[in-house]
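== Sequence, structure tokens ==
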Amino acid sequence: MLSTIGRSSTGQLASVTLATSFVRSLALRPAARSRFSAPGIYKPATQAIRGLTSTATSRPKKAPATTKKPATASAKKTPTSVAKKPAAKAKATATTKGRVKPKAKATGKTKAKAKVKKARPAKKKPARKPLSEERKRMLERQSLKKLALFAEPKTRPVTTRTVFSSQGLKGVTGGRSEVTSMMTTLAREYKTLPANEMQRLKTLSDQNKLANASDYKAWTESLPVQDVYDANLARRTLKNKFDYPKGSLKLIKDDRLPKRPPQPYSLFMKARWASGEFTEIRRTEGLQGFKRISLQVSTEWKALTAAERQPYVDLAQAEHERLLKSTNNVVVPKYSRSKSP
């Protein structure tokens, strides 16, 4: 009996030891693989064995059939909840957009502020270079030419010779050489004209004179008196300063223009001529005597004191005021405008 019991117990013990050794070998093989397959894990063998045994024991518990259904149900429910959340967010964004719109419709102050922010500072213009003296003279000349009113009406021929030449040159359309040759032939023909043809040309020239005078008067009367006066001043300045135009100075003749008041020096010269002291010199010497008398009077004027000149200054001032009253306060040049010697 005891021998049989001992045999059976030893057999059981051997089977148990074999089973345990087999399990240990199984447990050690994956542990060694996991230790070298997973980088960065360097645990002791005992810890790895415990982790593998725990995972081996816990795997069957996580996959029961009963626990899968609630998980599926919960998984099915969660997408709806997740799907509903974006809708809520969309509604929230829609409401927020609707609330933001009044902010976009800001008052005029906010708009003005925004515009002020966007406004850029104005760029500074580069400083202009100073004008040269030649440029200044050119601009002055241009302004004086505009004031001078050179656009006068065209005049007709006023002599018998010019009337005859203008009639003969009407059909000529050639160049300068042809015109000069035609003028020479017309000059020869003019010398041989009969008396009746000369009388006809004389009547035409007189008619042209009258037509020119009426056209000129109409042109001057169409301009203000002040413009005519300023035009004559501009013409004098152009002639004295720029020698324009060439030839003699031609001023605008207008009966409405006031007469120039006398200067103190001209009044003194008039008084010296009225004295009769220079009558004999003017009669005997002619133009040379006139020049000598003028030079003598100018030296006498320069030698006068301020008290001796004052009577002539008062006379010139009184004449100037009289002209102002007679011309309805039209601009009249002052007596001190011209230079005295």
